Amino acid sequence: DEDGYFYIVDRKKDMIIAGGYNIYPREIDEVLYQHPKVQDAVAVGVPDEYRGETVKAYVVLKQGEKATEKEIIEFCREKLAAYKAPKIVEFRDSLPKSAVGKILRKVLREEEVKKRKKD
């Protein structure tokens, strides 16, 4: 704020550390929701051998809409610093949610780790 104080806007464990930068995923989520074709979205840090983590966006499009990974990434790059923009976009029909409707980032992170271990 104007007095020089910082305020934490996300859970520390959700923070993405990519190439030495601390990235709050909520900031990316807010930009993803601004895209006119996006119904639901969440940004998650996934393992990256060079950067430590990289930003991956999971996106559910509005019914009848089509978008490409490139379109979503470019939209984010227009509104975010380059290091914050997602490098990977995965389109899904739905996202895992808690009983109160909150997207479960942890489940998506765990899925990604399992997927990468298979490869």
Structure characterization notes:
The protein is α+β, with helices and mostly antiparallel strands and 119 residues long. The protein has one domain: ANL, C-terminal domain (GMP Synthetase, Chain A, domain 3, 2-Layer Sandwich). It is built from three helices and five strands, in the order ββαββαβα. The strands form two sheets. Strands 3-4-5 form a three-stranded mixed beta sheet. It has a two-stranded antiparallel ribbon with strand order 1-2. The longest helix is centred in the C-terminal third of the chain and has 14 residues. The termini are far apart. The mean pLDDT is 90.
Rg from alpha-carbon coordinates:
14 Å
Distance between the termini: 45 Å
**Major sheet strand order:** 3-4-5
Query: Which runs of at least 5 residues are low in confidence (pLDDT < 50)?
Result: none
H/E element sequence: EEHEEHEH
**Overall pLDDT metric:** 90
Count of discrete structural domains: 1
Q: Helix and strand layout, with pairings?
A:
Elements: E1 16-18, E2 21-23, H1 25-34, E3 38-48, E4 52-61, H2 69-79, E5 88-91, H3 105-118
Parallel strand pairs: 4-5
Antiparallel strand pairs: 1-2, 3-4
Structural descriptors:
GMP Synthetase, Chain A, domain 3; alpha+beta; two-stranded antiparallel ribbon
What's the quick description here?
This protein is an alpha+beta fold and 119 residues long. Helices cover 29% and strands 26% of the residues. The strands form two sheets. The protein has a three-stranded mixed β-sheet with strand order 3-4-5. Strands 1-2 form a two-stranded antiparallel sheet.
